[in-house]
Amino acid sequence: MQTDLLREARRQAEICNACRYCEGYCSVFPALHQERFFSEANLTQLANLCHNCRGCYYACQYTAPHEFDLNLPKALAEVRQDSWESFAWPAPLARRFQKSGVMIALATVLGFGVLFLAFRMLGSAGGSGFYAVLSHSAMVAIFLPAFLFPLMSIAVSLRRYWTATEGGRITHDQIVDAFASAAKMKNLAGGHGDGCNFEDEDRFSQARRFAHQAVMYGFLLCFASTTAGTILHYGFDMPAPYPFWSLPKLLGIPGGLLMVIGTIWLASLKLKADQSLGAPSAWGGEMGFILLLFLVALSGLGLYALGGTTAMPALLAIHLGSVLSFFLLTPYTKMVHGFYRLAALIRDEQRKSAG
């Protein structure tokens, strides 16, 4: 990891450790105040535990123009971003996406979409509905490796993170407590439950927490919809398309709507937020990730609404291109932050147990 980022984060953490004014703000400060010397492992863990709510910045008396010039949200954001890029496998792809995320997202979606349309132009796949455009066996052959690759890549990244933060043996209780915190997005509620200062300086708001929850639960519903469809196809010999009152549709439509609403909301908050309190170099990658999620959800809903029209082949190509791009780019987008957050929360539960 970059030594200059770690050096600056260490300097600011030492000042915060002496002050302790923000002790109750989020999970970062109890963990920070337990340390006396901040190693690379400490700083990497603190950075990934931070949710960038920015409450500490607006409460701090040592921000610029004070000579200490504290900006802990930015310092931790830069260490956090650098850790994701360092632990990613392969790492060069992660760095490239952070610099040009929006362009890469658009290019891959359009590129794969054109490729799927080309398959259609070569002739019908011989099936009905969606499978007339691309056969089921072809979809499996394309998307199964694309689904397994990011899982393998993320597993390698998380193993590197766990080793770097000196994580120990994980217990059942630690997993349960970490998942409970992640499900409620407790840290985005702020230390006193008032929310983040993310969107408008020192005004507290729950907007960022609710937008994240909309995206997360929307994504989980869509994943459950796909799982239900897979079970129906292979377990009950019931291939798609499915009617409205089927389980895949009852899970997928609300999930898609939540993702569309959540991604638009997050993009709006991101555009209003002060970039100097985060990692400016990662802004393009973050917006690219939001765009990918938005395209996956919107094209899926469009495919459901217009699946019986002549627009279906083009919509299916865009949707499949969006999903394939999302899978292949997942290890290098901010999607991976959910896995790191969970690992950081588990690691924090270990700290509490040891303390």
Automatic annotation (TrEMBL):
The chain crosses the membrane at residues 102-123, 129-151, 214-236, 242-267, 288-306, 312-332. It comes from Roseibium album. The keyword Transmembrane helix applies. Signal peptide: none annotated. NCBIfam families: CitB. The keyword Transmembrane helix applies. This is Tricarballylate utilization protein B. The lineage of its organism: Bacteria, Pseudomonadati, Pseudomonadota, Alphaproteobacteria, Hyphomicrobiales. Keywords: Membrane, Transmembrane, Transmembrane helix. InterPro entries: Citrate_utilization_prot_B, NarG-like_sf.
